[in-house]
Amino acid sequence: MGELQQLPGSVVILIFLLFFGGSFYMSVRISRKKENADGYMTGGGKIGFGISAASMTATWIWASSMYASATSGYTYGVSGPIHYGLWGALMILLIYPFGRRIRAVAPRAHTIAEVMFARHGRSSQLMLAGSNVLGSVISLTSNLIAGGALVGMLTPYTFTQGVVAIAAGVLLYTLWSGFRASVLTDFAQVVALLGAVVVIIPVVFFAAGGPSLFETGAANLTPQQENFFSSDAFFNQGAPYIAAVLAYAIGNQTIAQRLFAVREDLIKKTFVTATFGYGATIIGIGMLGVIALYAGIQPLDGDVNNLIPQLAATYLNPLLLCLFFVMIIGSLSSTADSDLTALSAIVMADVYGQNVAGKKRANPRTMVLIGRITMVVAIAAGLVFAGGRFNILDLLVFVGALWGALVFPVIASFYWDRVTNVAFSVAVVAGLAVFLPVRFSWVDLSGGLGIASDVLSTLGIGVVLGLMAFGFFGTRVALVVGILATVVAAPFAIGFLHTYPVLSGSLVAYAASTVVCVALTMLNKDRFDFALIKERTGDFDKEPAAVSQPVDEPRRPEPVAAGEGIL
User: Fold this and answer.
1) 3-class SS string, 226-258
2) Which residue ranges traverse the bilayer (predicted)?
């Protein structure tokens, strides 16, 4: 491996000024003297296909996702990026069948937690809002870590200086116009990002040795890393991520915000497009980790977060290194600004709009001020936590597993009219209660506790696959898939799964929350009128919310997602 090169300090400053200055200029151009609260949170719910698809793609092709995919490739071999990118793409695809149902019952909402307040009450809302605050802060932190690692390795500046500069730049342009600034800059960022990916990956591959690398570097791989169907990769990366992606699709506010922002008739088109864009890009980036593995490269300072910038500094010429730097800055900015707008929407709508002032008395101007203050506080928190330099892949899997306790109660609440606030809340608490000790090995899972954990995990397999089938094919198919998956997996899983705490923790959370939610719901005979959700959610401003893109197509009502009427 050659000597690592760096960009001159003056060039780095120029890149930052052009990138963040241009983003700030775009934000100021769309800003308004009297900012609209609904536009600040969701763009008015009428954003068109191009910007919506680009924003969804850019938001999930983030620097942390790139680093994590490369880490997976370096750790598990060629199957690692496949497991990471393919199941991440499935997460985006899963949004549209459930998303159509969510928009049908709450067309003018701003957050999923806001809808849970209308459906159940305060405790359900705060559980979902609280989990998203935690998730978005972790996501923001991981992006700042990725940016700091980039700056620390490719420039004369330190990790801390890089984190501060990126945090200030993202806050600068997002603060003014909130979600509208985020989606508009996403469009420009994803164009630059995809262009850079197409150029950089082949250059690194051929500079590292090209096709001959797979012969000369084969000795650097273990048998599991050489195996495309590696069980090590599946149980440690693939299976936990399959479980996590459903939780991301249902529980993540950055996704929900785009779901409530896009025109209702464009939901399917938008998320299917983003599915292919994300999958192809992230799998491709992950192959950089595979290249490093075959080339025998050791991550600088033993930190796998350094892997991608290390490859760039080794194999790219100065011009391409600048392009790579812009690619990573663009990818992390597109997600960091989404985290900021997600957090601001939660505090604006769920904390102030519903719980402090109340829906009817909420002042839109005060809401915008609160949203901006939230962004400043969130950036400060991200700066503090970024100093820990956590493993990015571990952070992402942990958040997805944590949200697993929410998935069934949330989905059931949109389809099953008997689910109560008590059933929702107790189910989530039960899911978390079993997730934490299993995930972090707080208890000895040998013997009877291990068998009990495996039984719950096996049920969790059926729940995950059943819910996925339910979104696309409805209740009957979901029940068949869930039952078959549980029965088929049982002989292999029981007595075995507890040895994989990351996977088991996620699955037991699904199983426990589902069992408790169903049991408590069956005790309730009252029926909920879903029409009430539309009445209880809606715009905070009397004036029409700002639109990020002109509406140039006639609205076509889309049918409700398959599976309506669970139980």
Assistant:
1) HCCCCHHHHHHHHHHHHHHHHHHHHHCHHHHHH
2) 6-26, 47-70, 82-99, 126-153, 159-179, 191-214, 234-251, 271-295, 315-333, 369-386, 392-415, 422-442, 448-470, 477-497, 503-523
- 317: amino acid identity, one letter: N
Encode 297-330 in three state secondary structure: CCCHHHCHHHHHHHHHHHHCCHHHHHHHHHHHHH
CB 147 within 8 A of CB 162: yes
Structure-block tokens of residue 298: 């050791």
Structure tokens at 135: 């998730």
Q: How many residues does the chain have?
A: 567
Contact 68, 392 (CB under 8 A): yes
User: How are the residues of the chain apportioned to helix, strand and coil, as percentages rounded to the nearest 5?
Assistant: 80, 0, 20
Q: Helix (H, G, I), strand (E, B), or coil: what is residue 47?
A: strand
Q: 544 with 42: CB under 8 angstroms?
A: no
Q: In this predicted model, what pLDDT tens digit does every residue of 223-254 receive, in sequence order?
A: 888 888 888 888 887 887 787 777 777 877 88
Cα distance between residue 288 and residue 17, in whole Å = 28
Q: How far apart are CA 449 and CA 502, in angstroms?
A: 16
The backbone region for 177, taken as left when phi is positive above 0, alpha when psi lies in -120 to 50, beta otherwise, is alpha
pLDDT (average), residues 197-208? 89
* Dist. CA 323–CA 309, nearest whole Å: 12
Q: How far apart are CA 471 and CA 467, in angstroms?
A: 6
Count other C-beta atoms under 10 Å from residue 28's C-beta: 12
